[in-house]
UniProtKB/TrEMBL annotation:
<feature type="site" description="Transition state stabilizer">
    <location>
        <position position="25"/>
    </location>
</feature>
<dbReference type="InterPro" id="IPR018294">
    <property type="entry name" value="ISPD_synthase_CS"/>
</dbReference>
<protein>
    <recommendedName>
        <fullName>2-C-methyl-D-erythritol 4-phosphate cytidylyltransferase</fullName>
        <ecNumber>2.7.7.60</ecNumber>
    </recommendedName>
</protein>
<comment type="pathway">
    <text>Isoprenoid biosynthesis; isopentenyl diphosphate biosynthesis via DXP pathway; isopentenyl diphosphate from 1-deoxy-D-xylulose 5-phosphate: step 2/6.</text>
</comment>
<dbReference type="InterPro" id="IPR001228">
    <property type="entry name" value="IspD"/>
</dbReference>
<dbReference type="InterPro" id="IPR029044">
    <property type="entry name" value="Nucleotide-diphossugar_trans"/>
</dbReference>
<keyword id="KW-0414">Isoprene biosynthesis</keyword>
<dbReference type="InterPro" id="IPR034683">
    <property type="entry name" value="IspD/TarI"/>
</dbReference>
<feature type="site" description="Transition state stabilizer">
    <location>
        <position position="32"/>
    </location>
</feature>
<keyword id="KW-0808">Transferase</keyword>
<dbReference type="GO" id="GO:0050518">
    <property type="term" value="F:2-C-methyl-D-erythritol 4-phosphate cytidylyltransferase activity"/>
</dbReference>
<comment type="similarity">
    <text>Belongs to the IspD/TarI cytidylyltransferase family. IspD subfamily.</text>
</comment>
<feature type="site" description="Positions MEP for the nucleophilic attack">
    <location>
        <position position="214"/>
    </location>
</feature>
<comment type="function">
    <text>Catalyzes the formation of 4-diphosphocytidyl-2-C-methyl-D-erythritol from CTP and 2-C-methyl-D-erythritol 4-phosphate (MEP).</text>
</comment>
<dbReference type="InterPro" id="IPR050088">
    <property type="entry name" value="IspD/TarI_cytidylyltransf_bact"/>
</dbReference>
<feature type="site" description="Positions MEP for the nucleophilic attack">
    <location>
        <position position="161"/>
    </location>
</feature>
<dbReference type="Pfam" id="PF01128">
    <property type="entry name" value="IspD"/>
</dbReference>
């Protein structure tokens, strides 16, 4: 990995961890980031993964308003801020706490098993000169575009999967690129690279890892619990 995170000429790296979602699709009693994963919360696992990645980053966690005090207890020493109604708003809240960073990663709390190598690839690609970087994996399923129907959808076409990538987090940016992507306070997208693309910023893709999957549904949580047990 490149030299990162140190003052005195080296890049200072910050990681924003959006964790302010409610986890509707997961359907647990508590917000998704606070659900148990093998004895600690999904959020704690995620932050441990960032620390274990060895990128020496300043970490900013973004949580729902009512969980700020609890998060400070769970993660002493980590900066905790209040999130917004949409993921992009939560990222902007985190961005305000990253004043000194040259390289900023945005990493979903909901991807707690992301291996250290992925963080390294993303940081290295930003330091190598890419303004925006995402980890991506080839799509393995056969994809159909469908049309709505009265009793069943129908297939309009089979989509060529060869040029498609399923992208994950951490997504890495130069500070200037992430600020540009989020310059519009009303800008919303499912990921930060999407906002960067709209500004004409070129987004590079580095290899992701299947372990970086997002815990979205009960099925994902089952898999994650098996993997950590
Ligand atoms: N207003 C929001 C919405 C989402 N997130 C975070 O963004 C990441 C990716 O979002 P997703 O997995 O879609 O989480 P939820 O929005 O909680 O899921 P759902 O759509 O099922 O409610 C999660 O770590 C989530 O906590 C956030 O910080 N603020
Ligand atoms: C940011 C993200 O995790 C990248 O894959 C994703 O876009 C979050 O949005 P989702 O709609 O909850 O999958």
């Amino acid at each position: 990995m490149s030299e990162t995170g140190q003052p005195g000429g080296f890049a200072r790296v910050a990681v924003i961890v959006p964790a302010a979602g409610s986890g509707v699709r997961l359907g647990e009693d508590s917000p998704k980031a606070f659900v148990d994963l093998g004895g600690s919360t999904i959020l704690e696992r995620c932050v441990s993964g960032i620390i274990d990645a060895g990128i020496d980053a300043f970490v900013v966690v973004v949580v729902p308003a009512g969980l700020i005090a609890r998060t400070r207890q769970l993660l002493p020493g980590v900066t905790v801020v209040e999130g917004g109604a949409h993921r992009s708003e939560s990222v902007r809240a985190g961005l305000e706490a990253c004043a000194g960073a040259d390289v900023i990663l945005v990493h979903d709390a909901a991807r707690p098993l992301t291996p250290p190598e992925v963080f390294g690839r993303v940081v290295d690609a930003v330091l190598a000169g890419h303004e925006a970087v995402v980890p991506g994996l080839p799509v393995v399923d056969t994809l159909k575009r469908v049309l709505p129907g009265a009793d069943a959808e129908s297939v309009a076409e089979t989509v060529d999967r060869e040029p498609l990538r399923a992208v994950a987090t951490p997504q890495g940016f130069t500070r200037a690129a992430l600020l540009r992507a989020h310059a519009d306070d009303a800008g919303l997208a499912t990921d930060d690279a999407g906002l960067a693309e709209r500004c004409g910023i070129e987004v590079a893709v580095v290899p992701g890892d299947p372990l970086g999957f997002k815990i979205t549904t009960q099925w994902d949580l089952r898999i994650a619990r098996m993997l950590v047990s």
